[in-house]
Specification:
This protein has 3 domains: 93 residues, NadA-like (Rossmann fold, 3-Layer(aba) Sandwich), CATH 3.40.50.10800; 80 residues, NadA-like (Rossmann fold), CATH 3.40.50; 87 residues, Rossmann fold, CATH 3.40.50. The longest helix is centred in the last third of the chain and has 17 residues. It is built from 15 helices and 12 strands. β7, α9 and β8 form a beta-alpha-beta unit. The protein has a 4-stranded parallel beta sheet with strand order 2-1-3-4, with helices on both faces. A 4-stranded parallel beta sheet has the order 6-5-7-8. With 301 residues, it is of the alpha/beta class. α3 packs parallel to α4 and α4 crosses α15. The structure holds iron/sulfur cluster. The site of iron/sulfur cluster (SF4) has 13 residues, from α5. Iron/sulfur cluster binds next to α5.
Length: 301
């Protein structure tokens, strides 16, 4: 893309973006991979094809670079389920707790946190906290419950969730599995417990892609946002990938994030051309939010 060169810009895209956006991106990844990539970027402009909190994370890590997002309305139900004023009150009520927040939250929430995590490293980060230290985990209660089931830690959970991962239908999933009895079910830990209990593998988007590549089975039912199927299918063109069905959807049987899909190829182009909309974060918040992100990146090495 000529314009990209002309602007000395880099395009980072999340796995949940439309296929045509993933195809023009310099790097496609999950939240952890994108954060790590954002740190290495040697460009004047970072166009972040994803949602608002992801672009904010890139800006927190790259204060001198211009970070742009194709649609400022591309939010996240999970991030929105944790308003900073209420979260601050919750933390103040439990002053002895260490605060671990999932990266899917606003810069203000990160600024109130001790350490950030992603679905790739959440278990490792929780396990790095001494057993006697009580933990607040926010904002995703489903990921929190999954971590509790794995670590036995008694964490205090914020009551937030992702609309996409809560939309999977267990009944329909069982029906699909009856049609493909040899298929292995894999799921993202933002999914509800009853969906996770059916899965043979639970992991981040990057973890799921790696699993289908290395697992000898040829059929998988994939319980996460359907955008992941584009990259996954490129990695395993000979394998059958079936999106897990959602409660609402009776047509394509897949679950899509309306926020992620607000970005279109046209908006990506316009955004780069106009270098707008731009992400800006007050410096006092950015500095505070940087500390828990850096702790996470350090622990993820
Ligand atoms: S899939 Fe869920 S967690 Fe991810 S951006 Fe969309 S609403 Fe947020």
């Amino acid at each position: 893309m000529e314009l990209k060169k002309e602007k000395n810009a880099v395009i980072l895209a999340h796995y949940y973006q439309e296929a045509d956006i993933q195809d023009i991106a310099d790097y496609v990844g999950d939240s952890l991979g994108l954060s790590q990539e954002a740190m290495k970027v040697d460009a004047d402009i970072i166009l972040f094809a994803g949602v608002h909190f992801m672009a904010e994370t890139a800006k927190i890590l790259n204060p001198t670079k211009k970070v742009i997002l194709p649609d400022l309305k591309a939010g996240c139900s999970l991030a929105e389920s944790c308003p900073p004023d209420l979260f601050k009150k919750f933390i103040d009520e439990h002053p002895d707790h260490i605060v671990i927040t999932y990266v899917n939250c606003s810069a203000e929430i990160k600024a109130l946190s001790d350490i950030v995590c992603t679905s790739s490293n959440a278990l490792k980060i929780v396990e790095s906290i001494p057993k006697e230290t009580p933990i607040i985990f926010a904002p995703d209660k489903n990921l929190g419950k999954y971590i509790i089931s794995k670590t036995g830690r008694d964490m205090l959970l914020w009551d937030g969730s992702c609309v996409v991962h809560e939309a999977f239908s267990l009944d329909k999933l069982i029906e699909v599995h009856k049609q493909y009895p040899a298929a292995t079910i894999i799921a993202h830990p933002e999914s509800e417990t009853h969906i996770l209990q059916t899965a043979s593998y639970i992991g981040s988007t990057a973890g799921m892609i790696n699993y289908v590549k290395t697992n000898p089975n040829n059929q998988f039912i994939v319980a996460t946002e359907a955008g992941i199927l584009h990259k996954m299918q490129q990695e395993v063109p000979h394998k059958i990938l079936i999106p897990a069905p959602s409660k609402e959807d009776n047509t394509c049987a897949c679950s899509e994030c309306g926020y992620m899909k607000m970005n279109t190829l046209q908006k990506v182009y316009d955004c780069l051309l106009n270098e707008s909309p731009e992400i800006n974060i007050p410096e006092n918040i950015r500095k505070k939010a940087l500390v828990p992100i850096e702790r996470m990146l350090e622990l993820s090495k």
